[in-house]
Amino acid sequence: MAGYRDKFIINFHSLTTPMSLSWWLERSQIKLFCPVYHLVSDKIPDHIKHLYPVRSTTQFENDLDLMLKFFEPINIVQLKIFSKTGTTPARDICSSALTTV
């Protein structure tokens, strides 16, 4: 089964590589981006390593730097206000819940 998963990931990645984040943002009507990271670690746990790639702390920090170029981070209170009032922020927004173990 893992062979099919690996082939899918390789093929799908080759399709999306030429499409940058700015390319997607220009073509979408989405104003809210909610990234989800299940795990960020410099040492991949044994129970995860065969399931999916894990972002290192350096990769995660680079991802955050990239997101900050395109999105304004907001907290859950601000998100509720936008949702209740139906207002649209001046910039695209980004919200995420982070937890540590």
Q: Compute the CA-based radius of gyration.
A: 17 Å
Question: Could you report the average pLDDT, rounded to the nearest whole number?
Answer: 79
Low-confidence stretches: none
Total E-strand runs: 3
Explain what the structure shows:
The protein is mostly helical and 101 residues long. The chain starts with a helix and ends in a 7-residue tail after the last strand. The longest helix is centred in the N-terminal third of the chain and has 15 residues, at 2-16. Helices cover 46% and strands 6% of the residues. It has helices at residues 2-16, 21-27, 57-70, 76-85; strands at 32-33, 72-73, 93-94. It contains four helices and three strands.
Q: Layout of SSEs?
A:
Elements: H1 2-16, H2 21-27, E1 32-33, H3 57-70, E2 72-73, H4 76-85, E3 93-94
Parallel strand pairs: 1-3, 2-3
Short description:
This protein is mainly alpha-helical and 101 residues long.
